[in-house]
Amino acid sequence: MIKDIIIALRKNANLTKRDVANKIGVAYQTYVNYENGKTNPDAVAIINLANIYDVSADFILGRDIYRDNIYLKSLEKSVLQNAKELFSPTDHKVRNAFEKYYYNKDKEQLTVVDYEVIDYNWFTRGQEYIVIKQNNNDMLPEISKGDNVIVKLQDKFLSNDFVLVQIEDEPAIIRKIIQKDESILMYALNSTTRENQFIFLDKSINYKIIGVVVEIRKRISRI
Questions:
Q1: In the chain, how many domains are there?
Q2: Which H or E run includes 61?
Q3: pLDDT tens digit string along 179-204?
Q4: Burial annotation 123-142 (CB, 10 A radius, 16+ → b, else e)
Q5: Domain boundary among 51, 66, 86
């Protein structure tokens, strides 16, 4: 069990076995033996591994709190994805994250690239949410490539909101929206954006405001 956990954590952090061995202060072959299941890390190594990946020592050890996780039994997810749910508030839902999203296509048929945990309280009064994994840097510095963006499905918005909008049949994109009288301008914050940095919406353009951004979950920095 320990070997499966440390392998998943290492791969998620994009580290090599040698990288991890150096970081926790053991010989390369010693660490290889951990991942092969030939030996288990001692207490010091477990603490160092927990510090590297910002998880608890109990999580590294795979204790009952992890094995009894209901999501492990009901969802096909990696060790790290289940960890996100374990250490989240009690009331939550898991939402698929999509790199590309189309309003006029069945979202269940879209490719899932990640998962995100959302508080159950957000779903009161019939509210619905989706998660978009930002695949570019159009919205820097607010939203970076790799961030998970939680979008509340609604077509109503306020000026200066970030919205998820689909134009024609293209994949939906996130833009800041400015409305003044009858004029609507959407734009990318990053001035180096080459395509669709500024979009003026009028009756000649077929578009759909899918939802308003309510939270940005920043990607985990590589170690």
A1: 2
A2: helix 57-61
A3: 887 789 999 999 898 777 898 988 78
A4: eeeeeebbbbbbebbbbbee
A5: 86
